[in-house]
Amino acid sequence: MIKLHGFPLSNYHNKVKLSLLEKGVPFVEEVASPSQDAAYLEKSPLGKIPFIERSGSAGCLIESQPIIEYIEAIGPKENRLLPADPWEAAQCRAIMSVIDTSIDAAVRPVLPAAFFGQSTTPDQVARAQQGVLRGIGALQRMAKFSPYIAGGELTYADLAAITVMPIATVVLKALGGNDPYDDWPQLHSLFALLRQRPHVQKVEAEGAKAFQDFMARHK
């Protein structure tokens, strides 16, 4: 049995949780926050979430992408969420990488200003916006939307998109900007399609409640 450590405020926790649900891999959750305590670092060497444990095995597995690769390897073979063709599988991984390293990474420096009222500058916000737009431009050239982001079948790239990409909207709008996806109808259609799935509804509802509770505590 897999134990998933993390909490639903984390988009990467939600990406892993949604992957487990959609793949049909049994798991349990344990609420955990990032920590630099020595005992915690024995499980998560960078002190981050999410990470997973496996019953009967020593050690843990960190970072969402390796965790997803493991989920695909152990899950039901008939429920493939990564294409069998190596080229198409690599394209899915490339899309996920752009989402993580361009769009999500661009807004991380200004996230404390959006949620905690920490100071920021117009230049920092502008750099975040520019970084997100650069990532969007890359994805627009890479994505197929036929109807899913990488082609005709649901993949982990779709699960990454629906769990990770919305944070850019929340952060930039909180800082007085616009929704960076306003002029991207294909993405809105994809999200509408994905939000028909019960597991997506579950993960998004849990994330929304966690966010509301968090903001209420930090008013």
From TrEMBL:
For the GST C-terminal domain, which residue ranges apply?
Answer: 85-219
Listed GO CC annotations: cytoplasm
- Which residues are in the GST N-terminal domain? 1-79
- Gene3D superfamilies per record: 1.20.1050.10, Glutaredoxin (3.40.30.10)
Supply the SUPFAM superfamilies for this chain.
Answer: GST C-terminal domain-like (SSF47616), Thioredoxin-like (SSF52833)
Taxonomic superkingdom: Bacteria
InterPro entries assigned to the protein according to its UniProt record, in alphabetical order: Glutathione-S-Trfase_C-like (IPR010987), Glutathione-S-Trfase_C_sf (IPR036282), Glutathione_S-Trfase (IPR040079), Glutathione_S-Trfase_N (IPR004045), GST_Omega/HSP26 (IPR050983), Thioredoxin-like_sf (IPR036249)
Question: What is the name listed in the Swiss-Prot or TrEMBL entry for this protein?
Answer: Glutathione S-transferase
